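Quick one before lunch.
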Amino acid sequence: MQGEIRMKNYKLLTPGPLTTTSTVKQEMLFDHCTWDDDYKKITLKIRKQLLQLAHVSQDDYTVVLMQGSGTFGVESVITSVVGDDEKLLIIANGAYGDRMRDICEHAHVAYEFISFAENESPDAKKVIQILGEDSSITHVAMVHSETTSGILNNIESVAKVVKEHQKVFIVDAMSSFGGVDIEVGKLGIDFLISSANKCIQGVPGFSFIIANKQLLIESQGKARSLSLDLYDQWKTMEKDGKWRFTSPTHVVLAFSKALEELLAEGGIAARSKRYYNNNRLLIQKMAEMGMASYVDIEYQGPIITTFYYPENKQFAFPDMYRYIKKRGYAIYPGKLTTAETFRIGNIGEIYEEDILNLCDIIRDFLAEV
Ligand SMILES: *Cc1c(COP(=O)(O)O)cnc(C)c1O
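Model of the pyridoxal-5'-phosphate complex:
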């Protein structure tokens, strides 16, 4: 039976859901009761650990867990903290920045939008200019690791400008939190959003928000949606760890285990190092095979890499995808609007040996086409 399961299995080289450990998966074999004290304690423990990973204290910050995928978390923040008489500046250089605009359109949140090339980190000088021109802007939002391309945006330079102008700073750190160290307090990030199934290496089912406590309290009553009301969700959870509506119990148990395993690995520093090693090795090996990466190495994050199709080959991505999948790995199609590309992620239970295996498989595939 075990053998059969393994036969069907492949490792995910995708930006999440990702390959988790068998010990994380095993946690989900228990059907936990939600009002039980043991369960509520797990929620409280998770929230505390996330504050520590973000380098913030519980006097200034708090954590809200929100049912749903990562987008539910982003939507919850935007529609709960930007009031009817306020305005959000969205800084975008990829699909996830664009999605924030979509959220504003749906919920009728007032916004300003600036976009940069998908392989270009947003320029803080441009942000200064816009904040200077439009004093009605109250909040600024951007993506840290733009998973569309794999670029790691320079949030530090933008954070400085946002704080100088005393605006509220919202960061979608979905695919970076846990895999890249982020000094949430020092940077003055007021709302940081990430989810269970990315660098913490849990399974999909909820997102989490690391929130400036004072600003969260001040946002009471602004939410446009009941289920995604960030303040209400927090208020209930803050009491004793009970979730407001049905919580994804299995996902919470798996996440708790995943956090323990992150700490056992050596925390964010060690995990970041492993991801960076995977990533740089992959880029080097792919370059040796004539496949260039799209983002300049200076801005390339450790999470996922976009590669151009090889120039000198008759190339069909679905053929390569099937060839690689048969041999034990799943990769990702490209998401750029400007070039033909594909993506390879290296977050999750992925090690140097996997990268070397994958590159051997790709080499064999290229030799056959
Ligand atoms: C994964 C991701 C999201 C959320 O996507 P979901 O499909 O809703 O989980 C948002 N932003 C970024 C940068 C992401 O990588």
